[in-house]
UniProtKB/TrEMBL annotation:
Acyl-CoA synthetase required for both the import of long chain fatty acids (LCFAs) (C14-C18) and the activation very long chain fatty acids (VLCFAs) (C20-C26) by esterification of the fatty acids into metabolically active CoA-thioesters for subsequent degradation or incorporation into phospholipids. The transport and fatty acyl-CoA synthetase activities are genetically separable and are thus independent activities. Esterifies VLCFAs in the peroxisome matrix. The VLCFAs are actively transported into peroxisomes by a PXA1-PXA2 heterodimeric transporter in the peroxisomal membrane. It holds the Pfam family AMP-binding_C. Belongs to the ATP-dependent AMP-binding enzyme family. It is a multi-pass membrane protein. This is Very long-chain fatty acid transport protein. Transmembrane segments: none annotated. Keywords: ATP-binding, Cell membrane, Ligase, Lipid droplet, Lipid transport, Membrane, Nucleotide-binding, Peroxisome, Transmembrane, Transmembrane helix, Transport. One of its GO terms (molecular function) is ATP binding. The keyword Cell membrane applies. It is found in: Cell membrane; Lipid droplet; Peroxisome membrane. GO terms for cellular component: cytoplasmic side of plasma membrane; lipid droplet; peroxisomal membrane. It comes from Nadsonia fulvescens var. elongata DSM 6958. GO terms for biological process: long-chain fatty acid import into cell. It catalyses: a very long-chain fatty acid + ATP + CoA = a very long-chain fatty acyl-CoA + AMP + diphosphate.
Length: 645
């Protein structure tokens, strides 16, 4: 037998084994979906949609299991001899958490008059107290609204008003107090909301209070799966934050199923330093733990320096990431604890393809659970990735689940004249589903267009924003789809890939440019720590030209002359079509991100040529295949159309 035949046989064998493995994953997912689905249907018929009952089951039947681990930072003037000395490890069993929650419930009801019909805002950093207050609100039948503790003034007041919060419970942390205290009067007068600080007096009252378990009738037995469990605000990338409605279906069923997809089981520990006010940490981090008797360990805030120390101290089996978290960790100096841990799975969303395999290798983590979802979106996809297959994808399933997925999740062709709009046939008015490998907007089926709220709950008190997320009569008359606002593509192999956000993509030379794709290529160049790519208007030129904002690694920031522009240009030419290569570049000390480590791309869209807004910036442009400093005479030729871009 020839070597070629052997190689072909080996390839076919590997493909067969891969397909078989994915089918096995499909059966696991289907079995778990049926199990969790039946459990949820039973609870719904019993009038127990509230997640409180699931937590209470474990608290009463397995009170000795550890529910929460918190590495509380030590405040000390003295120097620590080891990284481990920087934290005091607090552990709380399910039984202890349950009893503490009921004490909080007593104080909230008896001292502050919380009733089942109210919305209660929670404005706090990560700590066990966040969880105690959150579940105390649920136990009383009220609705928690999670506030980004970085907000102040008009944004904070807006969140309180639109969420209709009757009470705001505020962390006693100095930073949080500083954001809230100047707004208290306006919150009261404009928002009709009382502000209560979770200070020593409040905590002392909790400690001396009796436990109070509200009757089941207070927890809305009439609630349906689509009713509101939590209000979680969007990041406000397109205006002021919007209160996204997190339904009981997602809080119960989706969180439990997601826990199964990342192989989370009783006895495991999830470590997350992501903020609990965000659904990634709260709904896809903590709730999957509490739905199976696992442990949730929270970091007070994300720190590359102490991350692996906290992972080691908590004995985490799973770690959670968002956005640029993994890049921050990979680009940080080596630490003693970065491989001395028990982590089996890193899960989250935003793992870039260029860092994926290197992250697993350096930190000795066998599996990555990359997902795609949004706070308000009805569905998500997940890629439990081991080995080499599936790197870079947000969704990976076998033939069975992939077939089923296509009935409820599709990509729709975009209008070539306006990438923010869906294409429709001029004659029929109908849209078109994308071909394999073709990027388009990711849509999710709304089962009953006349009762769209049962699939997509939208935003509280913002019907305009809610309605904008639904498109009707797209593929046939009478259908309805949820618009994600994200560009995705289904590969030939049924892998699902995130491409870009609508609005981040721009057109140049009559072609759509994916900023995400360009950023991944730039990030491969030596010395690049982070980058953001946007499109900028250039006088006398159609479309938008690529503009890359680059932050260098500390070594290259100290010696910027080491940065190799020629290598960057060659790398871009090698990996991108000509129209996608950025024509302009500038360097900054750091790329600004949200507290959840997501890049704030909107801050970089208004670049001013040729010298920046302050007329002092140094900007480089692609001239004759090389990046050179953009001078005024260059810009005059470009803006007049005399210099061809």
């Amino acid at each position: 037998m020839s070597i070629l035949s052997l190689a072909a046989g080996a390839t076919m064998g590997a493909a067969y084994l891969e397909a078989k493995a994915l089918i096995s994953e499909d059966f696991l997912l289907i079995r778990k979906a049926l199990q969790h689905g039946i459990d949820f249907v039973v609870k719904n018929r019993q009038g127990k949609n509230n997640y409180w009952y699931l937590f209470e089951y474990y608290a009463l039947n397995y009170p000795q299991l550890t529910a929460i681990i918190y590495p509380r930072p030590v405040t000390s003037e003295s120097r620590f001899k080891t990284p481990e000395e920087e934290f005091i490890i607090e552990k709380y069993t399910y039984g202890e958490v349950y009893n503490t929650i009921l004490k909080y419930a007593y104080v909230l009801k008896e001292k502050h008059g919380v009733t089942p019909d109210q919305v209660i805002a929670l404005n706090a950093k990560n700590s066990p107290e966040f969880v105690f207050v959150w579940f105390a609100i649920w136990s009383l039948g009220a609705t928690p609204a999670f506030i980004n503790y970085n907000l102040t003034n008009s944004s904070l007041i807006h969140c309180i008003k639109i969420g209709e919060a009757a009470l705001m419970l505020v962390d006693n942390d100095a930073e949080v107090r500083a954001n809230v205290e100047p707004c208290i009067q306006d919150i009261s007068e404009k928002g009709n909301c009382t502000t209560i600080f979770l200070d020593k007096e409040f905590q002392d009252l909790v400690q001396t209070s009796p436990a109070y378990r509200a009757p089941n009738s207070d927890r809305h037995p009439e609630h349906q799966p689509w009713d509101t469990a939590i209000l979680i605000y969007t990041s406000g990338t397109t205006g002021l934050p919007k209160p996204g409605i997190m339904s009981w279906r997602k809080a119960n069923l989706a969180s439990a199923l997601y826990g199964s997809s990342i192989r989370l089981k009783r006895g495991d520990t999830v470590y997350s330093a992501m903020p609990l006010y965000h659904s990634t940490a709260s709904v896809l981090g903590l709730l999957p733990c509490f739905s199976r008797g696992a442990t949730y360990s929270m970091g007070n805030k994300f720190s590359t320096r102490s991350f692996w120390t906290q992972v080691k101290l908590t004995g985490a089996s799973h770690i959670q990431y968002v956005g640029e978290t993994c890049r921050y960790l990979y680009n940080s100096p080596k630490t003693a604890n970065e491989r001395s841990h028990k982590v089996r799975v890193a899960f989250g969303n935003g793992m870039r393809k260029d860092i994926w395999a290197k992250f697993k290798e350096r930190f000795n983590i066998p599996a990555v659970g990359e997902f795609y979802a949004s706070t308000e979106g009805p569905l998500g996809v997940n890629n439990f990735q081991t080995g080499d297959y599936g790197i870079g994808a947000v969704g990976k399933y076998g033939a069975l689940v992939s077939w089923a997925l296509k009935f409820q999740s599709v990509t729709a062709a975009l209008d070539p004249e306006d990438e923010n709009e869906l294409w429709r046939d001029p004659k029929t008015g109908l849209g078109r589903k994308c071909r394999p490998g073709e990027p388009g907007e990711f849509l999710q089926l709304i089962l009953d267009p006349k009762k769209a709220h049962q699939t997509f709950q939208g935003y509280k008190n913002d019907s305009n924003a809610t309605n904008k997320k639904i498109v009707f009569d797209l593929f046939k008359k009478g259908d309805a789809w949820y618009r994600s606002g994200d560009i995705m593509k289904f590969g030939e192999d049924d892998l699902v890939y995130f491409v870009d956000r609508l609005g981040d993509t721009f057109r140049w030379k009559s072609e759509n440019v994916s900023t995400n794709e360009v950023e991944e290529v730039i990030s491969q160049s030596a010395g690049v720590d982070q980058c953001v790519v946007v499109g900028v208007k250039v006088p006398n030129h159609e479309g938008r030209a690529g503009f890359a904002v680059i932050a260098l690694t500390p070594e290259y920031r100290a010696h910027p002359e080491k940065f190799n522009f020629e290598e960057l240009a060659n790398n871009l030419r090698k990996n991108l079509p000509k129209y996608a290569i950025p024509l302009f570049i500038k360097f900054v000390n750091a790329i600004q991100t949200t507290p959840n480590n997501k890049i704030q791309k909107k801050l970089y869209r208004s670049q001013v040529l040729p010298k920046g807004e302050n007329e002092k910036e140094v900007i480089f442009w692609l001239s004759n295949g090389s990046y050179t400093r953009l001078e005024q005479n260059d810009w005059d030729l470009i803006s007049s159309g005399k210099s061809k871009l």
